[in-house]
Amino acid sequence: MGFEIITKTPGPSGVRPNLPDYRQGCRQFHWQQAQARIKGHEGGINIAFEALDRHVLEGQGEQTSLVWLSKQGERRTFSYRELQGLSNRFASLLASLGVVKGETVFSLCGRTPQLYAALLGSLKAGAVFCPLFSAFGPEPIRSRMEIGNARVLISSARLYLKKVAPWRSELPQLGQVLLYDCHGDCPAGCLDLDSALAGAAETFHICPTQPEDPALLHFTSGTTGLPKGALHVHEAVVYHSYSAWCALDLHPGDIYWCTADPGWVTGTSYGVIAPLCNRVTLVVDEAEFDPERWYRILADEKVNVWYTAPTAIRMLMKAGDELVARYDLGALRFLASVGEPLNPEAVVWGTRLFGMPFHDNWWQTETGGIMLANFASEPVKPGSMGQPLPGITAGIVRVDDQGRLTELSAPGQVGELALRPGWPSMFRGYLHDEQRYRNCFRDNWYLSGDLAWRDEDGYYWFVGRSKELIKSSGHLIGPFEVESVLLEHPAVAEAGVIGIPDVVAGEVVKAFVALKPGYEAGEDLLKSLMAHARKRLGPAVAPREIAIKDNLPKTRSGKIMRRLLRARELGLPPGDISTLESDEGNGHEHSPRS
């Protein structure tokens, strides 16, 4: 990609990585090592027990489990013992309401202490927990709750009245709605959660759960049709704990900030479960993104490990370097990124600004945990997703029109990223859609739908979603490669690339870019962008058209929606847009062909 390998993490921590020798770790790994990290509960496994109760039993109950920062500036701390008690109260409340093992509890919450109590308390009660992103509109909420057969909903009074109350009567199976922040005026047919928790028992006998008992339901958007509900089981905690230890280099006592909202799988798996299993202190910020606030949190809370998203990193880059100099970020030891592939420029920027690179990793809602990672002890190749975790077998495959699968062994060959099934956090099905689940597997491979290639050192590189690959004059072009080069241009804040029909080439590359402050659209800038792309990519790969927009359509987790760009460009149906966060706006359409 034109960037030098970062041969080590030059941070000042002096902390020995959990995985000091990657290749030796792979050779010596066996799943009993990961299983040994789990204590077990009454002959089975319970995620919440591993995250909380075991630490209290082992004498670590007074350690801070969670630091909560409110929008208004309040700072509250919860020890492991206090969070245990709060989750017990929620579990006791569910039991008193007649919620039984296997029923589904949905949450529609901001990043508040009640959400964390509900997640862990639901798992203690044997219920299946399904988080919803609080910024969803009424229709995405309703469709997910219908598919998931919601039995219980926890939310704030404000969110409920705005997004659920108008259609609640059409969901008869929704027996209980538990609302916090009612302030003495709870809506009809709902229960004041804060009052109910105050009166609930602080001791609770955790429901015995077996490894294959359902625990978590995460919805992920499809390209068409309804969202898919990926089901995960209590055994997933084995991999949650192990992968965070291995890929995020978590040590007991670390101060850890995962900026992902628990309404998404990252915010649940690595924002709550995995770090608590590794006995760290979580930093939870209720407020929305603000560069200065984020830097202040990193400094004031003395964060050691920071796990964030490429979109957020690019927004910090856009805010300028001078902000960083105002804060002491010397406690930082390890930076990681997830959500979409991290552009090389952002890795280099992190090294320059923080003295260490962001370590990108790759996984999906379906995998339930990190599959590929750039490790603390290994060189970082900017733009690469990294290498498989010990215990994970990855490969590059192709499936022909007859359904025959071929594994590609030579470095540099582009194909579909595939994984050998069987790791503990692998999803166990799509809710009510067994055929779609079976279609994810072929010849003992899980097919991710992501195109990638593997280099001679075993690092994997993202190309694009299989349906997003651009075929132009016999060339196969991955949109991520083109986007990464465009993001190197000093004027570009965001980039999205699609293929559009062309009578000669079949398809040509069209790029959409949003600009950084201080830059204005015009012919001179378009020529500069085109020249930069042609120099870095060559004329066969560089965009034939570039359109400048005020902003690009993104999911609420920050991914550019290439599918929606293409649909709008070609007048196609948009498919599922329930996760859409921002629209394109009224950008300038200077887009001459090169």
TrEMBL record:
Q: Which UniProt keywords apply?
A: Acetylation, ATP-binding, Ligase, Nucleotide-binding
Top enzyme category: ligase
Q: Where is this region: Disordered?
A: 575-594
Please list the residue ranges annotated as the AMP-dependent synthetase/ligase domain: 57-431
Q: Does the keyword Cytoplasm apply?
A: no
What EC number(s) does this enzyme carry? 6.2.1.1
Residue ranges of every copy of the AMP-binding enzyme C-terminal domain listed in the record? 481-559
GO terms of molecular function:
acetate-CoA ligase activity
Question: Ranges of Basic and acidic residues compositional bias?
Answer: 585-594
> What protein name is recorded for this chain?
acetate--CoA ligase
